[in-house]
Design brief:
Length: 314
């Protein structure tokens, strides 16, 4: 297993390096710049040039990338150009909110998606199966920001069941926390849940057609044992794989959801950095998200190798 992990890490290293280069290049090629944002709309070219020189933004792009990459390799994300705070400090303050939201959204998507996919597979070809497939396809098509706005309008403003914005940490009380994240977590989980439903259904349909399932029926095992102990176990590889994929999308989806619900997370920090042309904040937040996605892929590969030894050779 150690060899598998090292092999996956070696394969992911070029991805991390290329991704860092792309992130740095895209950020620095965007129109405008932090100097203009700091100086204001009435500042002259001399003032902007002086600020660029003070911030080191007038150096060649490759020199800037080399300096940034060197500091990044040593765990230094740099300082914000706007408030001069360390980017690592800003990320540490915002990360718990995003991590909590993403994890709870993933748990919700799995708790709803897997049983619903199994039920649709068991009832395949029926009206129930058609309804589940249709509903999952429709929910996957809805944009997250639109779902969030509609949820706020209905459940927060009209029905007043939950607050429209804000985040209460778990340390302040489980009930208060669950109420505060009910809308954002549900909104973020809607798309991944529909994907998990469809992949679980297709994997279970294939698993239920196996010879071992027919043998289990012949042996007189109960439907619960056949569906959950045998069929679902053999359908786990695709489910684990798609769970890893949707976990990565949760990180990206958090950017929109946090802005809609005014949650102080990494997504909100990234959006603020983009609006203010704060290059170190944008680069730091984006690299962190990329690192999380790479780590998730590594966990998925290792989990699949544990579930199915045949995948270790590949």
């Amino acid at each position: 297993m150690r060899t598998i992990i090292l092999r996956r890490l070696a394969a992911l290293l070029p991805t991390a390096l290329l991704g860092s280069l792309i992130i740095f290049g895209i950020v620095h090629l965007t129109p405008g710049g932090p100097a203009a944002a700091i100086a204001g709309p009435d500042a002259g070219p001399e003032v902007i040039a002086r600020i660029n020189h003070e911030l080191g933004l007038d150096r060649p792009i490759l020199v800037q990338f080399g300096s940034w990459a060197w500091h990044l390799a040593h765990g230094d994300f740099g300082r914000s150009l706007m408030n001069r705070e360390y980017v690592s400090t800003l990320i540490a303050q915002r990360l718990p909110v995003t991590a909590t939201l993403a994890i709870e959204a993933l748990i919700l998507a799995l708790l709803v998606g897997v049983p619903l996919g199994v039920y649709a597979a068991v009832r395949r070809g029926t009206a129930t199966d058609t309804a589940v497939k249709t509903l999952s396809g429709l929910t996957h098509a809805f944009p997250e920001f639109w779902v969030g706005i509609m949820a706020i309008s209905l459940f927060a403003l009209q029905l007043a069941w939950v607050p429209a914005t804000g985040f209460v940490p778990i340390s302040a009380g489980v009930k208060a926390h669950l109420i505060s994240v009910a809308l954002p977590a549900s909104t973020l989980a809607l798309g991944p849940c529909s994907v998990i439903v469809r992949f679980t259904r297709s994997s279970m349909v294939e698993a239920l057609g196996g010879n071992y399932v027919r043998t289990a029926w012949a042996l007189g095992l109960t439907p619960m044992q056949i569906y959950w102990r045998f069929a679902l176990k053999n359908a786990l590889i695709p489910i684990v794989t798609i769970t890893g994929i949707v976990s990565g999308t949760l990180i990206g989806g958090a950017v929109l959801v946090e802005r809609v619900f005014a949650l102080p997370g990494i997504g909100d920090l990234l959006a603020e950095g983009v609006l203010q042309k704060d290059f170190p904040v944008v680069q730091g937040a984006t690299v962190l998200m990329m690192g999380i996605v790479i780590f998730i892929n590594l966990v998925v590969d290792v989990t699949c190798a544990l579930l199915d030894p045949r995948t270790r050779a590949s």
